[in-house]
Amino acid sequence: MEEERLNRSLELKQWILSRLKQGGPIPFSQFMDWCLYHPQYGYYLSERSTIGKEGDYYTGPCVHPLFGGMIAKQLSQMAEGLGEDSFDIIEMGGGRGFLCKDILDWARQKIPLFFRNLRYTLIEKNPHFLKEQRERLQQYEGEGYVRWMDLETFGQEKGQFTGCFLSNELVDAFPVHLVVFDNGKLKEIYVTQDNGQFREERGEPSDPRLVTYFDSMGITLQEGQRAEVNLKALDWMERVGHLLKKGFVLTIDYGYLADELYSPHRRQGTLLCYHRHHTSDNPYERLGEQDITSHVNFTALIQKGEEAGLQFTGLVTQYHFLLALGILQEMELLNLEISELDGLRMRLSLMHLLEPERGMGEVFKVLIQHKGIDKPVLDGLRDLGKIPWPTPYSNHSVS
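The chain above was modelled as a monomer; its predicted structure follows.
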């Protein structure tokens, strides 16, 4: 198996090198696109598992079903505020289907009226994830609650929808342009080849939007500073804004507002590669066998959303969002139903979702935008003041 992976990686490398020899240098965004989405060798289209303990990284739904449960609670409140007969949930990049199943399980058990009125559409490119999703969600598909569709077909068949467009760790997976501030000018990083090896070179921006990108947010890079620009995220946000007639966009991902993301102390940018839960800053190795990602610019998503008719609802850290929705109270209820050992395992798992410094709690953000509804009030965004922190407890009383 390992030899097969090495051969696949080498074949992708040779394929890209041949393209460079024929066509010359390419923007890094194109190189990243080939590494992640090549139909035969791309990382996200790979047959092997990339998510979870046996993969390269964790996502929230892999940690504990309560993550999906809290999102279900928030979606239910959104649906109640809209006051419509039906509520569409559109999830793009649903991975292994855990989040969808956890949302539906929670809704069926805890919020039956909401469950009866919802319809869940999954948009998934990876054929192997698609297969796993269909197996995991077979019952819900049979009952008519779940369906699969690509984004273009959804727009053509469904048109505008009322509900929520949901994504979890989607935007960070879009290919990014690499830029550097060089002698007072913005230059783009291109990938070329030299004697069978990849080499970077600097050139003029390949897309005029790169030139105005930082000015639109009042950002000035320092001399020699590298940064990532996710133009695909802007295209995606514009598309989602136009598809949504009334409702919400709920985006969960890791990143910062522009002032923090492009601050001088991030002189080399945020591009990172993930392989078997280890990180690297070298995207030119293990082609097709490692994830390549960068932090999300939430300021850009907010601004582009406003251009597409989406109003800003709120932006909070993941741990704030989960605590505000009552995850600690749900932990206490679960703790009464399970053994002491299982309770300990649950708390350790959920700490990974909540812990600000070493877990996913602080760097992961929850962005909510709305359309067609006036000043919605959502529990996940409520001001908690000083947020309480979970402390170890036992489900056995001590006398």
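The radius of gyration is 22 Å.
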